[in-house]
Amino acid sequence: MASAILRFFDLKNKNTDLKTELMSGLTTFLTMSYILAVNPLILAAAGMDREAVFFATAVSAGLTTILMGLAVNIPVALAPGMGLNAYFVSVVLGSDGAIDYRMALGAVFISGLIFLLLTLTSIRPLLVEAFPESLKIGIGAGIGLFLIFLGFKSSGILSVVALSSAEANQTLSNWSVQAGALENVSVTLGLLGLVLLGIGAVLRWNVSILLTIMALTVLSIILGETQLPSLSSALLPAFGTEHVGALDLQGILELGILSVVFTFTFVELFDSFGTLVATLRKAGIKKEDEKRVIGKAMVVDAIGIGLGAFLGTSTVTAYIESASGIASGGRSGLSAVFTGILFLISLLASGLILLVPASATAPVLIFVGMLMLTSVARLDYSKPQHWIPAVLTIVTMPFTFNIANGISLGVVSYVLLSIPAGEVKKIHWLLWSVFALILIRFSLGGFH
Fold first, then answer.
1. 438: Cβ–Cβ under 8 A, 6 or more apart, which residues?
2. Residue 367: Cβ within 10 Å count
3. Residue ranges of the alpha helices (H) in 157-257?
């Protein structure tokens, strides 16, 4: 059995082993498991049942992640995307009752079909060829900086504080970022986690990420930040299925809400593309294999969108948190398969799975983000037309809290700067098409 697994996932040629892959899958799951708690909370605002959303989240993440591991053999996990779920809710709440969650699920399903069509016609894989190396570097580093901000925010090391209306009128924003208080248990654990991960990096311990998550979870329980659930509640299965097949295709088509479908498709495209480019390079995928692997991965991603909508959740997409498992040594699809199995098992023990606090996973996000930022060393700083778009991509992602915005601004600036640099002929035809779509998107809604 073990030898068959080794051959199927090609572990020897990928310089990994069974134990490392399983540990990587567990690390990725623990880092991603917050979505099991957060997604039901967010989608409940659109009138959806929390237990049913939990079921859809766990099953869609489990099945699509297993499919990614088996079909593409890469350590990338999928789940309903953060940001896309918030947009899903905004579509429902901002329609004055014209659109309910069933129609929004229909819009997600249609965007998944469009996504699949673009993939099967080889348009999406062409993006790998169309995007210049500088933008690819910027995408990876930008997502890294985005992860760092998320980690600082979720640990409390940085706190986002809303300003009063009077203060907001005197500033350029209605919120400010402040340093967290050291007496806060979450802040202390977050900083301790960074120290432990730093020591693990110096000593080159691949298991340091998983050990750090486990140690911080135990400390969180001891210090009273995390409460142990009762055995009965911890093992209570979550099998709410009332949203399965509830999507309303006819309703959304009758309304003709093309802008909703377009936005879902646009953000899905760049979120998944950016995540795959960033994670696969960290996973050791060779440059000559990148186009082929991303093309196959995008098919799975498109299938996941449709499956998630059918089960009753917002857009399923490749997760950047997969980088945590990759950083701990994951190199094959076995890591993803194990992550997917754990998502399915979570249905049987939701209380225990959700026990891992944000303070235990936040330092991992920060550490992985720092690893991804190291790619900026490969930028060619002798050519402003290359490094300026890359830097704009990097800083726009966390500052606008949106991966797609960063990629969009990077593409626009790259095309515009290529004109005075005399490199217009080097721009791929598909990048010109993306440039035009981005201008249309910005004209409709700016950075929103």
1. 408, 411, 412
2. 26
3. 165-169, 185-203, 208-222, 231-234, 249-255
Angle at 198 between CA 197 and CA 199, to 5 degrees: 90
Taking the alpha carbons of 68, 72, 74, 76 in that order, is the dihedral positive or negative?
negative
Strand, helix or coil at 177? strand
Identify the H or E element spanning 114: helix 101-120
Amino acid letter, 14: K
d(CA 380, CA 386): 7
Evaluate whether 389 touches 411 at the Cβ level (below 8 Å).
Answer: yes
139: closest CA among 424, 374, 394?
Answer: 394
For position 168, what pLDDT does the model report? 42
**CA distances (Å), origin 420, targets 408, 413, 416, 429:** 20, 12, 8, 18
pLDDT tens digits for range 30-55:
888 888 877 887 788 888 888 889 89
What is the rounded distance in angstroms from the CA atom of residue 132 to the CA atom of residue 220? 44
Helices (H), 223-353: 231-234, 249-255, 258-282, 287-311, 322-327, 333-345, 350-353
Query: pLDDT digits over 172-208, tens only?
Result: 445 667 777 777 888 899 899 999 999 988 987 766 7
**DSSP state at residue 426:** G
* Cβ-contact 385, 417 below 8 angstroms: yes
**Element housing 123 (H / E):** helix 123-130
Structural contact between residues 314 and 43, judged by C-beta atoms closer than 8 angstroms? yes
Instruction: Give me the half-sphere count of Cα atoms (radius 13 Å) on the Cβ side of residue 128.
Output: 25
Which residues neighbour 290 within 8 Å (Cβ) at sequence distance 6 or greater?
128, 277, 280, 281
For 72, 152, 158, 183, 210, the CA distances from 215, given in Å and listed in that order, are 33, 19, 22, 19, 9
Task: Give the list of residues 6+ apart from residue 218 with CB closer than 8 angstroms, or none.
Answer: none
How far, in Å, CA of 66 to CA of 303, rounded? 12
